[in-house]
Write a structure and sequence with these properties.
296 residues; D-Maltodextrin-Binding Protein, domain 2; binds 2,5-anhydro-1,6-di-O-phosphono-D-glucitol; binds manganese (II) ion; magnesium
């Protein structure tokens, strides 16, 4: 199923056709690159390699004016196919390998792409599409546009539609919360203690793997603000916004603890800004926001 917006279609087709190469390229690149990304995280060889591959492919798409990623300091101004960037067009924000620390233990990982109709950093409600690839037992992609949310199986560079109009199941089943429990705030801990009594723990250390559980079975995923780091760990532009967009398009909610992630005004001076991230069934997110508000 193609996407009606031709630029989005080009990005998604390019991503689908790059995935086999990315997956194969993980082999032999499981070590540290002895370098840090702008968030101060140690980069794996695969982080840098996947980022370079996607930067090269996505920045040369007509209509893409910017490429930014979690792994690079500066935003790449892309020629509009003819080497001159007119500045308008869509911007892509990429987490080339989400959960790359799972590479060492050979667990699920992902790639996240947000397509903004705005200059970066941008608000989540300026997204026109967002997708994630899940490198699981099989490789799948979930794509959200203003029209719908679809799931594809990726094989041989092609994408095969397996689910259209993906929506969060009514009844939640799973939850997954990041950060160390002693580092949770009291308010979040009391919410987590309630959730733990009601649902099954599914937390694999790669946001995309955990998100796909929530999207498949219903529930809630969170990486809260921590006592040691109130802004949390996940990045607004590369993780919070695209995943928030996908889950909201699938009928759920997103939040930073107080409001939809998509309404958060970005820090114009820090494209790598972090944010607490909560996504899932709307009743569970509403409850979190109410409990955090009561505690204030
Ligand atoms: P990335 O590998 O892109 O830096 O993302 C890792 C993130 C996210 O995937 C996951 O939810 C979280 O880090 C896991 O953090 P902890 O190791 O603190 O649980
Ligand atoms: Mn990282
Ligand atoms: Mn990530
Ligand atoms: Mn990453």
């Amino acid at each position: 199923m193609t996407v009606s917006d031709p630029i989005v279609e080009s990005v998604i087709t390019t991503l689908s056709r790059s995935v086999t190469e990315i997956r194969q390229g993980l082999v032999g690149r499981r070590g540290s690159a002895n370098a840090e990304n702008p968030s101060g995280e140690t980069q794996m060889e695969a982080d840098i390699w996947a980022d370079d591959l996607l930067a090269d492919r996505l920045s040369s798409i007509d209509g893409i004016s910017q490429y930014a990623s979690e792994e690079r300091d500066t935003v790449l101004d892309c020629g509009d196919g003819d080497g001159t960037s007119t500045g308008d067009g869509y911007a892509v924000a990429v987490d080339p390998l989400d959960g790359s620390s799972n590479l060492k233990s050979n667990n699920a990982m992902g790639t996240i792409v947000g397509i903004y109709d705005a200059h970066l950093p941008a608000r989540g409600d300026e997204l026109v599409a967002a997708a994630y690839v899940l490198y699981g037992p099989i490789t799948t992609m979930v794509l959200a546009t203003d029209e719908t949310v679809s799931e594809y199986e990726l094989t041989g560079g092609e994408r095969r539609l397996v689910r259209r109009d993906v929506t969060l199941p009514e009844d939640p089943v799973v939850y997954g919360f990041g950060g160390r429990v002693p580092d949770w705030t009291d308010e979040f801990r009391s919410y987590a203690r309630e959730i733990e009594q009601e649902y099954k723990l599914r937390y694999g250390g790669a946001m995309i793997g955990d998100i796909n559980q929530v999207l498949t079975y219903g529930g809630v995923f969170g990486y809260p603000g921590l006592v040691s780091r109130p802004e949390g760990k996940l990045r607004l532009q590369f993780e919070g916004n695209p995943i928030g967009y996908i889950v909201e398009r699938a009928g759920g909610r997103s939040s930073n603890g107080h409001q939809s992630l998509l309404t958060v005004a970005p820090n114009a001076d820090d494209i790598h800004e972090r944010t607490p991230v909560f996504v899932g069934n709307d009743a569970l997110i509403d409850r979190l926001e109410a409990e955090l508000a009561d505690a204030r």
